[in-house]
User: What shape does this take?
Amino acid sequence: MREKDIQYLDKEQLYELQLSRFKRTIERLFTSSPFYSKLWKKSGISPDKIKSLQDIRRFPFTSREDLRRNFPFGLLTLPLEKVVRVHTSTGTTGKPKAIFFSKRDINEAARLIARSMKMTGAKRGDVFQNMMSYGLFTGGLIFHYGAERLGVLVIPAGAGNTERQIELMQDFKTTIVHITPSYALYLADVLEERGVDPKNDLDLRIFYLGAEPYSEETRDKIEKIYGVDAFNSYGLSEMNGPGVAFECKRKDGMHVWEDNFILEIIDPLTGENLPDGEEGELVLSTINREAMPIIRYRTGDITYVYPEKCRCGRTHRRISRIKGRVDDMFIIRGVNVFPSEVERIIMNFPEVARNYQIILERESSLEVMRVKVEIKKRFFDGSIEHLRSLQERIKNKIKSELMVTPKVELIEPGTLPRTTGKSRRVIDNRKL
Assistant: This one.
């Protein structure tokens, strides 16, 4: 079936494709996965009982702990001689997670990236600079293979070495970049210091942003700085890496490629399924993978499914941008707060530059949220009265929307630490 046809399957055709692949995956796992067959038999589940996609709700969840406990080969369903690659993803504690790929798995992952890039306007003749980490992290290599499959010129730059990144963009006239949002903002600072105007001195036209939660306001800021279209992408190593979901040109939610994945939204506390439009934890199942299928994987990412069909005509459902992870949320004085909510608020102020940090601490017996915000130099060099007014406006805006009164500290641009990878936005000193 052609790529375009798959994207525009009607609802019934897509459902039948998913159901067929789901049944086939479950049958394989029952015969080739000791972990899943033992788990499901204990729960009274068998392949012959699957009549519809709704039956997936009868299956137990798979957790990050399951992957770590079965490290390295416990979830592998092919003989080792048929496996061509392994990626690992480490956590803060315990064993890493090992994700195995057959040759077909890599080809399918690359196909989804190529599909996503073409959907956003990438084409032969483009120059693609991949600024994501290569190696055991899936983000660099999987995107690289997908870009080559599409037929664009690939620069495997990797993360970091900012001066070299700029030279590559200038020498090879880079048009497309894959980058984390925080590094995109840092790169803008370095370009400004070097006197390079991203809009007029470079040939950039498309940014692919991923690997960390960020706000719509941050996307707007990046688009204005570089004069590009910035598209939100979503993936995780356990589900092949990048290319699980991607924005189309409408930029109104990310299409989950449902010919490869079954998506669910659950209440993170109860595990109950939630209807479209209601925010919860994303659960994903692979239905087109050979080496290591995973069923009902709790991603920990908070999002919701758009109830209506996308205006682009594609039938694959859309999820909202990732609000954060279940374990990223912090509680301050009884209020649940995601860092992306703070980012959304402060990035709406024109005076704010490109970096911020949230510090949680205790003063006597009280919990305090301190927000350090970098201010554009021309505003920082302004009057004390204006800075005091800005400080108060930011504080009041956060208080009115999040019901938490922060202490806001305005600082000069370039003061906070920069990173070429995922940013560390929250420092919790309350337990130190």
